[in-house]
Input
Amino acid sequence: MRSLQQERTTAESADPVELPVVAAGPGFDLLKGIRVLDLSTSVAGPYAAMMLGDMGADVLKLERPGTGDDARAWGPPFLNGESLWYLSVNRNKRSIALDYTKEKGRSAFAALLRASDVVIVNQPARIQEKFKVDATACMAIRPDLIHVSITGFGLNGARRDLTCYDLIAEGYSGVMDITGDAEGPPQKIGAPAADMLAGSDAAFAAVSALVDRGRTGKGRTIDISLVESMTRFLACRIVPYLGSQELPQRSGGKDSVIAVYQVFETLDLPITLGLGSDGIWERFWAAVGRPEVGRQPRFGSNSKRRERRAEIVGLIQEVLRAKSREYWLDILSQARVPAGPIYRIDEVAADPAFQERGLLYTLDTEGRQVPQVGTGFQVDGRANVARMPPPELGASTVEILRDIAKLSDDEIAALRGSGII
Output
């Protein structure tokens, strides 16, 4: 059995993965004609705005002059001086560097707001109000605006003004308490799960509000909380506790309501295995050459199998250790038994099925190549393609102020002279 250290060493020394190179193209256009003003930084808000941009919205990324989005400084790793974390959640946007917190920048900001359908902010309520980007201030400028706020704890309640990161939200939600081995400490999920979930919630809520506005003409205020997005992710854990008072415990992922739903060792590399129905249970045992086990009455239902989980896990583990990961994945796929590898990130990137589906690619725009993880679903049988790469700071400032805010060249020059842009 290959050790975790051996796997880590292999991952660190892996050769670079060559992704398909894709030129920027028209992409999905379901939100064509919708404009989004993105005032957010870091991950959750930019991810929400990127999702809207992926669907065709015109996203204006409004950033602080000089520094821009906080994530621009997150690294290493960097690619040609650009943060790869920033590059992961900011395609399909145009960047404008404008200090809207100063009075001289307010009129330009107001003009952009009037020209936008959705605004996304991620400051705590107190800061939103201080800089006049809260829903009340923004909707005074455009009453039918969809105002989307993403904060740690929401816009009201005892924690409204507390600062928050993904790590904090994961702790509050309970997910860390049930993640990790039984004997080990609580563990954070290996990605910014609360940020990504909150971003998805924000994009979904914004689109829903836009549909409603098409019927009613009303603007809406959307209040997204990292902690609540992460907590609702645990609905399938919280509701069973509320109904049964059985408290979930850390188990290394071995306590699913499905009796056999966990990681198993093989001769070389581990696999995941989910035997979620009586039919799959019987097919598994037939596939591994032990059909009599699958027919035993004492294992005849999920409830019975849960009662005998330790015994079953031992039986399965004994069988799977005899052959390699690839051997079992081939056998089990033919038998229609849910099983899979535990990929390292380099294996994910190199997976031909992901590349074939258009999920992973390198975006090429005028020689600037940026690796991307795509939208993640297809529309009318095709994957999305980015219209534009993540923008360089302030790259579209003049264009946006001239064409959307309708400022003259003299007004733009005055803002530049004052350090507002």
In short: DSSP finds 19 helices and 16 strands in the chain.
